[in-house]
């Protein structure tokens, strides 16, 4: 074993071997993989080996497509067989709601280049004779599903990496990781110490333990997972005989089971509701290629449905039951990327679907390490979607919830209940008393909408307009006609201070910095000129700035800030819940603030985009003249100790102004009719400011900032796609995101977000259209739950297009 490597990859499962191969393929040949036992010795060796391209996040789905296409490459290079069986498969729906879900998934696949097809139950029966046709409403066919040999595939990755120059060291456990002052690592192993510039944690079942070596508690948990192998079945032999092919794969959502052919029988697995975590607090290092004790009673409810849906199973003998541990993140997607504040330490773990996602994970991480950017949008996998607020107990509860509902529908208005409430603000009980229906954003409770009674304070889950529709409409009307009150503590807040703060922010952000007491809107770009953030930037004094942004991206942005922080002269910190917020918005909001402010808040004295510190009543506050509603309004930021008092004061003082609480869904309705985009939907690292319509918030005259040259090249080359607002002739359902946009019978774009704009009484969709198909005068269609609805581009925002109310 060498004493030095540019990269040490920890873990010899399919993910570790994929990362190693992709690094070597990218030209980093001085790379080493260290495995405590043998390749595949964690979860890989007992995996069922299925693969598919469908994922709830379209960007993850693209990486799954790449993974499947990669197998032929590594087979050809290594000479090792992956045991690839590209059989195709059906996803079976037993209910109308599930058929709606499949239609939406099929529509999403249109702009991803997938080749799925919605078929009837009879057509599915022709493809899969084992099924009981009357139990199903229909299905979706995907020709790019199948299964492979986990052992052979992992060794094909490993041999391909070796051919490219990588080294693999087996039977050598890592015992410690020590970082040097220059950011490099001493990787301490049983066979000696390796000095490495970078470390990648692909530890799988031991990823938590590797993370703890550097003070990191990763939100991953291993769950017991069972599948069974039947004895040879005559029904399978008949399918093989009559078709001349192997049986296709199948996923039965109502039965919550998956299946494929294994030799002359069937491999059948399930994600049971009565699930069991494994080694909840620590994974033993001496756990080898062991299986866990089977427990058929736990999966009996799923098997009973399976016997009804596939009667031949009831007659089949069981040859073997496999019960082994697999790791999951709380939302079921991988954890990939660099760790905030920890130089040259990377993770690729929680990859439950390793044979669907392993290749894409390896590609994304190798690009990130070699090029400084993953090369495409990996937000759905980025480890930065979790933060310091995660705990062992919270992870345990959310992983169990995710596992038990793996094959269940997640409706767009469905909030999952496990481990809640977890993080709350001082006004949480005030909102609950007023019948708030809460959502969970990065573990923090925030009000979605308010019901007229406790009994009505719940969502009826649906893909269509639901029980909140009229109430959200009333909240939106109250804001537009009077004054609304919204808690905004779930925004991210950052403080930047020091004598070098101005110079640092000048190089970090493309817009010009504001004067003291003023705010500006500004995006943030990566080196490729792509959007990685959108902020409100406020300058309070010469060397103190406040940055406000998306709460979803707080860890993501702090990682970026810290990675570019100079060694002295600038300090940046996330204020988190030390600073809490309330917003008042609507034509009467200035009247309300004027009653409480210890200063003049008229348009002349406190204009649009002004910020100042003054008392609101007796409460010290930072007050900004801006709101995301696109209306007259103010953001009031106070220490947590003052938030309840401020809330009560605003309600009491605004009573005769008919002050009304509103929630996140009304805010969404209000911002849509202003054509305001949002982070993670309209603004992501695959769009330039010119494509996203943010060019007015960048300065082409500034001499230097991150991404400037690439941004200017993008401007000169012209946009590949452009963001547009559409008015949709919807029926009883609005867009939720990722629907295809059609023109002249061709898919020309995709929806990023949308909903019903209550004040304007219009169904609105925001989305990107290919530049060559962008024409405000052209007729378009947007596909909603399988139905193409007429849509037209809006030439300007539906509400206050000139911004008179917002600035007034």
Structure description:
With 808 residues, the chain is α+β, with helices and mostly antiparallel strands. It folds into three domains: 4-328, FAD/NAD(P)-binding domain (3-Layer(bba) Sandwich), CATH 3.50.50; 492-668, Gyrase A, domain 2; 720-806, Aminomethyltransferase beta-barrel domains (Elongation Factor Tu (Ef-tu), domain 3, Beta Barrel). The protein is built from 21 helices and 38 strands. β18 (335-339) and β19 form a beta hairpin. It starts with a strand and ends with a helix. The mean pLDDT is 96. Residues 6-367 form the FAD dependent oxidoreductase domain. The chain crosses the membrane at residues 7-24. Its EC number is 1.5.8.4.
Largest sheet: 9 strands, mixed
Top CATH class of the largest domain: Alpha Beta
Mean pLDDT comes to: 96
Question: What is the architecture of the largest domain at the second tier of CATH?
Answer: 3-Layer(bba) Sandwich
CATH superfamily (homologous) name of the largest domain: FAD/NAD(P)-binding domain
Helix vs. strand class: alpha+beta
Low-confidence stretches: none
Radius of gyration using CA atoms only: 27 Å
Q: Approximately how much beta-strand content do the residues carry?
A: 25-35%
Number of strands: 38
Q: Helical amount among residues, as a percent range?
A: 25-40%
Anisotropy-based shape: globular
Q: What's the number of structural domains?
A: 3
Number of discrete helical segments: 21
Determine the N-to-C terminus distance: 70 Å
CATH topology of the largest domain: FAD/NAD(P)-binding domain
């Amino acid at each position: 074993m060498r004493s030095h490597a540019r990269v040490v990859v920890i873990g010899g499962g399919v993910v570790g071997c994929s990362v190693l191969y992709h690094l070597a393929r990218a030209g980093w040949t001085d790379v080493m993989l260290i495995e405590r036992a043998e390749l595949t010795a964690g979860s890989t060796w007992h995996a069922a080996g299925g693969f598919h391209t469908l994922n709830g996040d379209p960007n993850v789905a693209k990486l799954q497509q790449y993974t499947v296409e990669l197998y032929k490459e590594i087979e050809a290079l290594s000479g090792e067989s992956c045991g690839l069986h590209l059989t195709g498969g059906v996803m079976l729906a037993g209910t109308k709601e599930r058929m709606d879900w499949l239609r939406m998934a099929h529509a999403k696949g249109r702009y991803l280049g997938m080749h799925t097809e919605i078929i009837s139950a009879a057509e599915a029966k022709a493809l899969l004779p084992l099924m009981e046709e009357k139990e199903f409403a229909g299905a979706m066919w995907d020709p790019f599903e199948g299964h492979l040999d986990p052992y052979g595939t992992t060794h094909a990755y490993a041999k391909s990496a070796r051919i490219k120059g990588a080294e693999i060291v087996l039977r050598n456990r890592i015992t410690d990781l020590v970082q040097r002052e220059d950011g490099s690592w001493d990787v301490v192993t049983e066979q000696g110490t390796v000095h490495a510039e970078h470390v990648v944690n692909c530890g799988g079942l031991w990823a938590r333990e590797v993370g703890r070596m550097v003070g990191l508690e990763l939100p991953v948990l291993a769950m017991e997972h069972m599948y069974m192998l039947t004895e040879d079945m005559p029904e399978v032999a008949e399918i093989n005989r009559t078709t001349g092919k192997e049986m296709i794969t199948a996923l039965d959502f109502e039965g919550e089971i998956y299946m494929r052919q294994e030799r002359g029988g069937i491999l059948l697995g399930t994600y049971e509701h009565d699930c069991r975590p494994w080694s909840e607090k620590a994974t033993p290092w001496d756990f080898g290629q062991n299986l866990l004790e089977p427990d058929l009673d736990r999966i009996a409810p799923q098997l009973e449905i399976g016997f009804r849906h596939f009667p031949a199973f009831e007659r089949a003998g069981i040859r073997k039951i496999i019960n082994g541990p697999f790791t999951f993140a709380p939302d079921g997607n991988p954890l990939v990327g660099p760790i905030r504040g920890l130089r040259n330490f990377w993770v690729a773990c929680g990859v439950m679907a390793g044979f669907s996602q392993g290749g894409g994970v390896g590609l994304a991480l190798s690009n990130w390490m070699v090029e400084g950017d993953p090369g495409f949008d990996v937000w759905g996998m980025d480890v930065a979607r979790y933060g310091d607020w995660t705990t062992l107990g919270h992870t345990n509860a959310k992983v169990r919830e995710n596992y038990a509902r793996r094959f269940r529908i997640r409706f767009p208005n469905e909030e999952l209940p496990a481990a809640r409430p977890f993080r709350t603000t001082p006004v949480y009980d005030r909102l609950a008393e007023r019948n708030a229906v809460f959502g969970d954003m990065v573990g923090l409770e925030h009000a979605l909408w308010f019901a007229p009674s406790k009994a009505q304070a719940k969502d009826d889950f649906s893909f269509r307009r639901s029980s909140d529709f009229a109430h959200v409409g009333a909240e939106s009307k109250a804001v537009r006609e009077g004054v609304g009150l919204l808690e905004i503590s779930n925004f991210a807040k950052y403080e930047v201070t020091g004598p070098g703060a101005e110079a640092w922010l000048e190089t970090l952000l493309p817009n010009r910095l504001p004067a003291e007491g003023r705010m500006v809107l500004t995006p943030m770009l990566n080196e490729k000129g792509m959007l990685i953030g959108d902020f409100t930037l406020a300058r309070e004094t010469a060397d103190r700035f406040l940055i406000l942004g998306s709460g979803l991206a707080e860890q993501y942005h702090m990682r970026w800030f810290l990675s570019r922080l100079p060694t002295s002269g600038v300090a940046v910190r996330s204020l988190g819940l030390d600073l809490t917020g309330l917003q008042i918005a609507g034509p009467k909001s200035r009247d309300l603030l004027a009653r409480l402010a210890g200063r003049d808040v008229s348009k002349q004295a406190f204009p649009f985009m002004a910020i100042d510190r003054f008392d609101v009543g007796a409460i010290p506050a930072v007050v900004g003249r801006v709101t995301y509603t696109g209306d007259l309004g103010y953001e009031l930021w106070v220490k947590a100790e003052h938030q309840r008092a401020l809330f009560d004061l605003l309600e009491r003082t605004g009573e005769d102004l008919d002050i009304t609480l509103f929630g996140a869904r009304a805010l969404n309705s209000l911002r849509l009719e202003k054509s305001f985009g949002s982070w993670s939907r309209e603004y992501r690292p695959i769009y330039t400011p010119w494509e996203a319509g943010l060019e007015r918030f960048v300065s082409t005259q500034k001499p230097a900032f991150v991404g400037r040259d690439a941004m200017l090249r993008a401007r000169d080359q012209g946009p590949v796609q452009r963001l547009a607002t559409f008015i949709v002739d919807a029926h009883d359902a609005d867009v939720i995101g990722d629907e295809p946009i059609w023109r002249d019978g061709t898919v020309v774009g995709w929806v990023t977000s949308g909903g019903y704009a209550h004040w304007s009484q219009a169904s609105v969709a925001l989305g990107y259209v290919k530049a060559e198909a962008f024409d405000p005068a052209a007729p378009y269609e947007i596909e909603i739950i399988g139905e193409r609805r007429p849509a037209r581009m809006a030439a300007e925002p539906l509400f206050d297009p000139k911004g008179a109310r917002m600035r007034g």
